[in-house]
Model the fold of this input.
Amino acid sequence: MSDRDSHTERGGGGDGDTWDVIVVGAGPVGENVADRTSAAGLRTAIVERELVGGECSYWACIPSKALLRPSAALDAARAVPGAREAVGDGRLDAAAVLARRDSFTSGWRDDGQVEWLGSAGIELIRGEARLAGPRRVVVGDRTLTARHAVAVCPGSEARLPSIPGLADARPWTSREATSAKDVPGRLAVVGGGVVGAEMAAAWAGLGSKVTLLMRGERPLPRMERFAGDLVAGGLTARGVDVRPGTSVTEVRRPDPAGPVTLILDSGDGGDGGELVADEVLFATGRAPRTGTLGLESVGLEPGSWLTVDDTLLVDGVDGTWLYAAGDVNHRALLTHQGKYQARIAGDAIAARAQGRPVPATARADAFAVPQVVFTEPEVASVGLTAEAAKAAGRRFRCVDYDLGSVSGAALRADGYTGRARIVVDEDHEVLIGATFTGPDAGELLHAATIAIVGEVTIDDLWHAVPAFPTVNEVWLRLLETYRDS
Amino acid sequence: MSDRDSHTERGGGGDGDTWDVIVVGAGPVGENVADRTSAAGLRTAIVERELVGGECSYWACIPSKALLRPSAALDAARAVPGAREAVGDGRLDAAAVLARRDSFTSGWRDDGQVEWLGSAGIELIRGEARLAGPRRVVVGDRTLTARHAVAVCPGSEARLPSIPGLADARPWTSREATSAKDVPGRLAVVGGGVVGAEMAAAWAGLGSKVTLLMRGERPLPRMERFAGDLVAGGLTARGVDVRPGTSVTEVRRPDPAGPVTLILDSGDGGDGGELVADEVLFATGRAPRTGTLGLESVGLEPGSWLTVDDTLLVDGVDGTWLYAAGDVNHRALLTHQGKYQARIAGDAIAARAQGRPVPATARADAFAVPQVVFTEPEVASVGLTAEAAKAAGRRFRCVDYDLGSVSGAALRADGYTGRARIVVDEDHEVLIGATFTGPDAGELLHAATIAIVGEVTIDDLWHAVPAFPTVNEVWLRLLETYRDS
Done:
């Protein structure tokens, strides 16, 4: 199951090793840049050192959601009397979940994606790409030249902290956590961000005894606080031992085939004790894959994130030729936002090559980035949190509503627990942020994204009537609460 | 579980039998009118002849969704390998579903709603209301007078066709279909509209052998055709015998405690045979509850729908005092749209009573009415269908996308089957209609409602990025399809 754009047949192919556009990295972001430039008639090559389809298709979005969905669906059935009895004491079939995950990753084979590249007229060059000065890319013994642009879309990789013993303890990163073939009896997860919270939910659902360790007070520290608190509660209800304020000071795994011991610091200087697990996942942040990209050949720092303008042109490089889209520019480490940038970068490259005005800029990166965390329960947010709005000096008011009090949610599940918040700019009476937390809350988000991007006023939102009895009726309750607050 | 607005404590009560505002009908619509006028400081009485909370709370939206949700939740679990095995051959527990339905209707008792009226300072008068000239309402032996306004919100009731034998066959209407205490072995459903399609899905899920008879070619004839076709397929997959082009010419039930026989006409003049069932539901349309409302005393026709302006003032009545909100004005027979009208009517009554300008009109009734049909699969629509846009002479283009091809839908359920359509006004490049059909498609709708009401342009919608991998990514696919079509 791949993630790529629709496409049409086009002519393509190289002219020696000179191309109109060279794209580095064939994840969804690189694929989308190439699709746009190729569709515009530019001869486009794409370079990939691993699997075409990228992190998202094989070791991130897709397999993680394939691991998470079955537990969520089963929990949803258990939450409704009548269906609950049908499930009875039936348990999730972990082998079936893993097999389905394998089919979504095509068994970590990229044939389907390679075929699509061909049909889109994009030339695939396998190997590691290295910039070698302006418009030049070396791949193995080939030196490619770009007439118009090079777009780097190498993505990011797990960043491991410097902890004694960690290097020898073969820890899981997001890659192993999404591709593991067996369910560990005991899994320690270090880090309460998106990867940590999602993988704790997934593997607990699959039967692991999971311990989630995080330095901060709650999971998902960049989200609204209530979201992290609800996730802590949801994970605990699924059997996860959630331990805030805890860090790992040492890792011991004397026998590589045996269990791993984590030495913990409980944060107040006290002894946090030890934790023994069968596997340990370190989900402690991401680093750009720019260490071996040859950035030094164009005056940039190897290993750094790349700063770009709103057409995705890299800052600090002479000429109008080097673009960077996706995780590597550190604007938003999210597949969909990278694809958004890719569409804009591809169109900008084509427009500049053909002497047309650039049709659009990546303006949404600045104020309307959506994110759905498919943990237990789901958390969906877009735009500014209350804290971020405050830090930005905005004049705003935020209102909350208990999602479980909405008829549609109560009908959906007994004991539905969730919360919604909108952040309203009081100068313009428009939404600047929204967060929804609860079972299936992810699909509630797009309404808020459209409201923010479209700058739909509160006055107008009163005329956007939510259908009764859907969970979306929370919009009416939020407006009422805003009016009365 | 009631459906009403949040409220605050207010003083209230009558002044003899003279009130500022008299509301007739204490369903969600009447409750919302009264809440608004009472909140504005107007002394408000509400008259109800049955249960406070109305059709929606006891015999429509709420119990129907309580009957439908458990099957949907169980089907959703069965659609995901891993969860599927947990369900195994477990069957829906119909008794548990019916018991949960009973709790959502509070056992058909209105104590909770009555208590809310009191806390909102609204006086409840039990009995049948009849207009007796301008600003006068008779209830039993009391004659009430309204200083400012009378708002009639009596709702609608099932309309039975004139078919020989039907009157003696004690057919189910929407009331019996949502409140029945037992699951009939064989249920015949006459009518393929919303009530028929929903109740066929609900009772088939609960174990009835359901036959759905409709005159037209497909269920939900006012929706996009593909929606009706998908519902016909979904109902068939749930075991419903869907029979288009079929009408009932006679009903026989010689023994009131025995089975009922329907004589059918297959539409081509041929003999449609007979159908024997244990119960028969006639879901063949609605009639306004205005037959005994005393309309003749103010120059209107008893039994007619009432025509209103955008402040919900009834046309053809002298003075500015008679309002009609909800089903009775025939604008949109939907609880949420009636509540929308109620908010506007209540505010308009208060504004006129207090010499302020009317703050808002019910403009969304004309172009942005959302509807979710919780059948199998769900159908959600807002604004114009392609056919309605054509009839209205709009210059438009519509594009479709297969929901099952969206990664988020494929992850959600194996074999996810659904379809989305947007209708785009080509003069202004804004949405004027949208339909989503598929499992859980109902929650996708509000994004489209906001886009239509906010007149968000297609150009702007490209910057409203759907989160990956949600089902909402269909928005990106629809925009791409629109661009390329």
Remarks:
- The radius of gyration of chain B is 24 Å.
- Chain B touches chain A through 95 residues (CB under 8 Å).
- Residues 1-15 of chain B have pLDDT under 50 and may be disordered.
